[in-house]
Amino acid sequence: MKRGLLAEFETPEAMLRALTELRSRGYRRLDAFTPYPVHGAEAALGLGRSPLTWIVLPFALAGAAGGYLVQWHNNAYDYPLNVGGRPQHAAPAFVPITFEMMVLTAALTGFVVLLALTRLPELWNPVFEVPGFERASIDRFWIGIDARDPALIRPIAERDLTDLGATTVAWAGRVRS
Q1: Signed CA dihedral, 98, 103, 105, 106: sign only
Q2: Which of 5, 15, 72, 173 is deepest in the core (most CB within 10 A)?
Q3: Among 163, 170, 173, which residue's Cα sits nearest to residue 22?
Q4: Could you tell me where the DSSP H helices lie in 77-165?
Q5: Dihedral sign (CA 159, 163, 164, 165)
């Protein structure tokens, strides 16, 4: 959220009630800022499962296949050694490195994709300029309504948030003209 309306709540319960009510009133581009994870916030925000696992899975499988292929190429094709009559392509011997390559590829891909999906690192955001927002990392709970939300009509949304128990309502970012 770069621009939009922010509302401060004193308790997580009040924030969850407000999120649920705002969603029922048609607001869809909501966000929550809390000092610790609040159980039920994802459901109240209407968030689904992360696409991260399905994005990482093909890369993990490709890493495993690449690790297995390199071992096969080196041991059975490019530089075969006949030691004690053992087969050139001994698949059980390739399992540990194959697994480790899968884990390494998944971890590195997951890290990069997570940064891309969350648009990090973000060193500054207009939300940080709202007076009192620093308490979102200490003891306050904030709800943000993105300026791109089609249901956002500023005076009505401010009244809705105040009626739902917000102690502070402020605009983040440049004011729309």
Answers
A1: positive
A2: 15
A3: 163
A4: 91-117, 154-163
A5: positive
Tens-place pLDDT, residues 102-152: 999 999 999 999 999 998 998 888 999 999 999 999 999 999 999 999 999
- The residues near 134 (Cβ < 8 Å, ≥ 6 apart) are 128
The first and second tokens of residue 27, run together, are 């607001």
Q: Which residues, other chains included, contact 155 with Cβ-Cβ below 8 Å and sequence gap of 6+?
A: none
Report yes or no: 149 and 4 within 8 Å, Cβ to Cβ. Answer: yes
Question: Rounded to an integer, what distance in angstroms lies between the CA atom of residue 26 and that of residue 154?
Answer: 14
- With CA atoms as reference, report the closest residue to 44 among 60, 72, 23, 66: 23
Assigned token pair, 167: 């102690």
Calculate the CA dihedral of residues 114, 116, 119, 123 and round it to 10 degrees. Answer: 80
User: Do 136 and 1 meet the contact criterion of CB atoms below 8 Å apart?
Assistant: no
* Whole-angstrom distance, CA of residue 132 vs CA of residue 73: 61
Length of the chain (residues)? 177
Q: How many CB atoms lie within 10 A of CB 128?
A: 12
- The Cα–Cα gap between 133 and 140 comes to 8
